[in-house]
Design goal:
Length: 246
Amino acid sequence: MTRTVSITNNKGGTSKTTTALNLGAALKRAGHRVLAIDLDAQCNLTLGAGHMPGNAHAGTFLLGETSFEETLVETESFDLIPSHKTLLSYEYRINTEPDSAFFLKDYLFNKQYDFIVIDCPPSLGALTVNALVASDFYLIPMQGENFAYVGLNEILQLTAKIKKRLNPDLELAGILLSKFDHRTKFAQMVYAKLQQNTNLKLLKSHIRQDVTLMECAAFGKNIFAYAPESRGAKDFDALCQEILAL
Ligand SMILES: Nc1ncnc2c1ncn2[C@@H]1O[C@H](COP(=O)(O)OP(=O)(O)OP(=O)(O)O)[C@@H](O)[C@H]1O
Ligand SMILES: [Mg+2]
């Protein structure tokens, strides 16, 4: 059975791509067949997996212009449906179709993977809706060092609507605190505040600040290939175990 996880937060720079890259790679290292999908026109996951964007990408795949096999690339980290800087024009075209929310779910039907990890863009448009409709779980990475949780309501409202109308199976895997420094009073305050909210399901694992997480993606590598002894590798291993236990 395939488990599909969307990594989503409409706020920018909250570690979505870092999480998709390294959770995907951790799941593959644990022996699972992993497909990752880059749904962000910034192409950060595509580049982080060491692939240069080309003519076949998530946009052409979603509109049926390229087949799954034509779009797929094998990388060191996982199999990948890459993105392209023109993806927004494809999102616009998808939006004009009556069944626009179901394109990704339909095209992923019966694919032979244990996990599909989807890196969402920092917005809640048609691509994010497609990801959530195709998913069993969604994971929200956020920072513990500012009031990032203020924007959480928008995602939770969208996912509640999608669960009610389009995908009853959708569940929150949890909120993942990233770039987290538990030693600061402020981080502890944010953590306590999130814990008080019983709707929010905070994951036990968190990802500490670690410069090698920034470096690895810039070199087109996952953290296990780039710095296997790093804090980042340990934290993503722990997250992987927690996700496997869901
Ligand atoms: N735990 C961490 N420690 C250090 N740097 C991190 C960590 N997590 C992410 N970063 C860095 O923070 C920046 C933003 O992270 P990332 O690209 O993963 O966020 P994002 O949510 O995907 O952003 P966007 O909304 O633009 O897609 C990147 O430069 C990344 O390398
Ligand atoms: Mg990103």
